[in-house]
Amino acid sequence: MELSISRVIALHAERDPDRPAVTADDGTLTRRELDLRSNRLARAYADLGVREGDMVTVALPNGAEFLEACCAIWKLGAIPQPVSWRAPHVERDAIVELADSRLVVGVPDGSYPERATVPAAYAADPSLSDAQLTDVISPSWKAPTSGGSTGRPKLIVATAPGVFDPEEPQSPFMRPDETQLVPGPLYHNGPFVYAFRGLMLGHHLVVMSRFDAAGALESVERHSVNWALLVPTMMSRIWKLPDEVKARADLSSLRGILHLAAPCPPWLKRAWIEWLGPERVVELYAGTEAQGVTIIDGEEWLRKPGSVGRPALGSQVKILDPVTREELPPGEVGEVFMLPEGGPGSTYRYVGAEPRRTDDGWDSIGDLGWLDEDGYLFLADRRADLILSGGSNVYPAEVEAALDAHPLVRSSCVIGLPDDDLGERVHAIVEAVDSVSEDELRMHLAERLVPYKIPRSFELTDEPLRDDAGKVRRAALRADRIERATA
Fold first, then answer.
1. Predicted local distance difference test score (pLDDT) of residue 88
2. Fewer beta carbons under 10 A from the terminal one: N or C of the chain?
3. Which CATH architecture has domain 387-486?
4. Residue range(s) occupied by CATH 3.30.300.30 in the chain
């Protein structure tokens, strides 16, 4: 039976009040503590003006405080809108404006004179009651953000309300009352979704403040972790640990891992399947928008190496010609379009952008691929303007806009180059009007972009990068640099 998030949290607290709900660097909260503390915090947020349906921007690092804040927001029927706690104010300001946030959590007092704010490590007045609040349901359980191909941020507002069934997993690979390792940043959609879905199932969340390969293995052993969400960069860094470190790690409690967010190199996928066993390695392909999903386990992957699986959870996939939008037969590469079980627009709405959608409601996130005769999806490439670096989306237009704001930069082109660790590294080609150093550019970008979006490498040129129409040939520039590197 579906209950409001508030009631689900209270139910778990009643069933086993002393079981840990979250363990993190900033402390451990039992189920009862999380319930009572978030009740009090919700009242503090209400005193600051938060009401049902409001968006609340959460700019906190990984930790118990992040989870407590989101629980308090849901208990008011409001919508958590997570952003990177390290986001420069220029980027965060644009997101807060889009969300029209009633409250911004995790920023210095006075950061937004026209809005309510609370700083990190904020504590609600202890005189406030921690009793249960009036039961309300958030109209949307999350509103993460994306940079978008336009270089401007957009919000991806889930249409699903803040209700869960504490007995029935929303994901086929999750089970109630397990211990889940959360190594990724909670402001990213994947870690946010699976951490909180786990919390609704009674999971003990072991939250890492930042990913560390050896630390992840130690956490699995110390806390008897059953399940973890990883991205291929994490998998690569763990796999590249010394053999004796991997051999020493006790992973007997680990029932499985789910990996997503970026293509996994076949050699790495095979290595993990051989290490853990095929039944413990599952891959998921989907967008934040949840227009559709494919899933594949290790046993299937060994039969269909390179595939990201078949459509699941009632969704459908078809391949269309990128130009004519005609459906292509098995084996032919085209643009991947998906349709969720609930039909067009049933899983999300954008704020600040328009979906890429066919007239009959099928959505695309711009990836190219093909279906085989058995309906398994294979990805041929990512769309030209999207860079997937370490499991994070980086949109060139956003980085270029920040670079071009430098007074000595005439134009720029940002591309992704192959990288064994990150999958792709962000590389910037910069046309400058005068001499400018890489250090100057990095300092300039640090004021405007979160660290993972800042290029790992720079290339200065005096050749024009764009034609008279302002167009840039990213694919050709990328191919040329890859050819030079392999020559």
1. 87
2. C
3. 2-Layer Sandwich (3.30)
4. 387-486
**What pLDDT does residue 469 have?**
44
- pLDDT at position 478 is 87
Mean pLDDT, 10 residues at a time, the chain of 487 residues: 96 98 95 98 98 98 97 98 92 95 96 96 97 97 78 89 93 94 94 97 97 96 97 87 94 96 84 96 94 96 96 96 93 94 94 91 89 94 72 82 85 90 92 87 92 94 71 80 82
Q: Write phi, then psi, for 365 (nearest 5 degrees).
A: -105, 15
Indicate where the chain has its CATH 3.40.50.12780 domain(s): 3-262
What CATH class does 3-262 carry? alpha beta
Query: What's the pLDDT at 55?
Result: 98
